[in-house]
Amino acid sequence: MYKVNVIIKRRPKILDPQGKAVEQGAKMLGFSNINGTRIGKFIEFFVNTDDREIADKEIKEYCEKLLANPIMEDFEYSVEEVK
Amino acid sequence: MKPKFGVVVFPGSNCDHDAYYVAKKLLGYETEFLWHKERDLKNSDIIILPGGFSYGDYLRTGAIARFSPVMNSVIDFANKGGIVIGICNGFQILLEAGLLPGVLMQNKSLKFICKDVNLKVVNKVTIFTQDIDKNVLTIPIAHGDGQYFAEDDVIKSLQDNDQIVFQYSDENGNVDESSNPNGSVLNIAGIVNKKKNILGMMPHPERCSDKVLNNTDGLEIFSSTIKNINNLIEV
Q: How many whole angstroms from its chain centre is CA B94?
């Protein structure tokens, strides 16, 4: 079995007003060095197979077909084997 | 042919009864609700995907609704030339389903906006708009995720194929930044597919169709659709 962590980000060229608003909060708190705040999604799940190839295929399809919308989002994931 | 309406109901739809009311009570056509778990479109000629918050807008608006059983049938129906109108959340579902190009992102202001807006009717060569006399309609919007976005090449293709139907404008039909409520590219409020049998729009025509509300601009879209259903304009 594998444990998967997926991070979904807005594509770099797409404005992230939420990140911008949050960063204003950072400025109000006095963090003068913080910049480039962008907000995305974190999704974790398990894949019930011991075959890494099958796992990778399913994870990728899951991300492409449902978890991320490629028009506005990029995704990356990490996989960890669990026993 | 006397067309029959089908109004899809997802968990979280909240404009389904308004759409039903317009089709059945105001226009007087046979109309049925289509539950999201069913695949049978009950011989509908016009499918309405209503507004609301299907599946709680979880993940992304329309992302999960797009995979519900009824949508398989709607996608088949649409690909065969069937008439589909997606309003607000219905528009978001059409985009997620790939029946229309682009995506609707969170409003630039991050605010949920609920107000009347002016819409320039850009294209009157569709069954949905052919019989609209006015050049500018006043129709309410009510959305948090209405910022239309697509890559430049997609926008160009929308323009080249006359697929942009409604643009946010002022009351005189001037399309400018000050009349753009949500940051949509080119003030886009509604588009059709290339074959022009699928309409997606963020504003709510079903919310301004009854005379009692002192605005029937929305009804013009439904009336035009019915009137021209038999002569779907070929491209």
A: 9
The CA-CA-CA angle for residues B162, B141, B95, to 5°, reads: 50
Q: Name the residue range of residue B24's domain.
A: 5-104+148-166+189-231
Q: Is B177 exposed, middle or buried (0-12, 13-18, 19+ CB in 10 A)?
A: exposed
Q: What is the pLDDT of residues B1-23, one digit of tens each?
A: 689 999 999 999 999 999 999 99
Active site residue B206: yes
The predicted model gives B58-83 an average pLDDT of 96
The CATH number covering residue B209 comes to: 3.40.50.880
The β-bridge relationship of strands A73-81 and A2-10 is antiparallel
Domain-embedded: residue B9? yes
More confident residue, B220 or A83: B220
Chain A residues with CB-CB distance to B64 below 8 A: 66
The answer to the question of residue B130 being in a domain is: no
- Domains of chain A in sequence order: 2-81 (3.30.1280.10)
pTM: 0.93
Q: Which of B15, B96, B143, B204 is catalytic?
A: B204
- Give me the interface pTM, i.e. the ipTM: 0.84
Number of domains composing chain B: 1
Comparing alpha-carbon positions, the chain B residue that sits nearest to A8 is B59
**Dist CA A52 CA B189 (whole Å):** 45
